[in-house]
Amino acid sequence: MAKVWLGPAGIPQYVVKAKSTLDAVRVVRELGLNAMEVEFVQGVRMSRELAKQVGKAAQDHGVLLSVHAPYFINLCSDEADKVEKSRQRLVDSLDRAYHMGAWVVVVHAAYYGKLGPSGCYEKVREELAKAYREAGEPSGVYIGVEITARKNQFGSVEEAFSLAKELTFVTPVIDWGHLYARNNGTIDYGAVLDLWNREFPGRHMHTHFTSVRYRNGKFVDEHEPVEVGRPPFEPLAKQLAERDMAITLICESPLLDKDALFMKEVLERHGVKLS
């Protein structure tokens, strides 16, 4: 039976509306959830002092924190200035994550661009190492390389897993909706979980979940409520009931806390309780 941490990507607002990130930690616990991802997707606007306060609240309430770095990151841009700014955004995210006690900073690392997949892989590896050094090699914080939905983006399962085998401070982040879209509407939860347990035995797995939209003949990275069922959540719950592992599920659906509670109900139906 998996040990599960579950919560919203950002501030709860549907079942109970939280006033701020600091207040959100309390609300997450009151809802019966035990994880939250702090969203820096539009920029790192949180001070170190506030990060410490959020971390203290999370510790007091027993909520596991993660961070999502800004969307405006492309470590393989052909413009040097954009690469520098991208790396700095990641450095700032790592810094705040460290001060709030968040254990992973999720990042969409790059688009292949002119470098192509192999050149981009080398560039991402180099830039992530620089960012980690520039952030002071924050103890206890992983850079989470997210599986991406688009095939022109860096972030296949193979790339993320390979990078994490090379760099000890990197961990793959499985976005189940992205993987479903990247694979043209197919997903094998069990195969991915088994691959994880082979490649990273005993390591906590960080994942995102949302349904995605089918538009113009393909699945695209546009989030839908979980009950839409593309990909379906229940088969993942069934697979987690059969495995002994630690996993975080961050709900990225438009309904955030409401869908996180729906996911909790489905997990409990299959005997999986939150840690």
TrEMBL record:
Q: What are the names of the required cofactors?
A: Zn(2+)
GO MF term (any one): zinc ion binding
* GO BP terms in the entry: base-excision repair
Keyword entries, A-Z: DNA damage, DNA repair, Endonuclease, Hydrolase, Metal-binding, Nuclease, Zinc
Top-rank lineage group of the source organism: Archaea
Documented EC number(s): 3.1.21.-
Name the enzyme group at the top EC level: hydrolase
- The UniProt record lists the Xylose isomerase-like TIM barrel domain at 26-254
For this chain, the family text in UniProt reads:
Belongs to the AP endonuclease 2 family.
Q: Which PANTHER family match?
A: APURINIC-APYRIMIDINIC ENDONUCLEASE (PTHR21445:SF0), ENDONUCLEASE IV ENDODEOXYRIBONUCLEASE IV (PTHR21445)
Name under which the protein is recorded = Endonuclease IV
What's the source species for this entry?
Answer: Pyrobaculum calidifontis (strain DSM 21063 / JCM 11548 / VA1)
Organismal lineage: Archaea, Thermoproteota, Thermoprotei, Thermoproteales, Thermoproteaceae
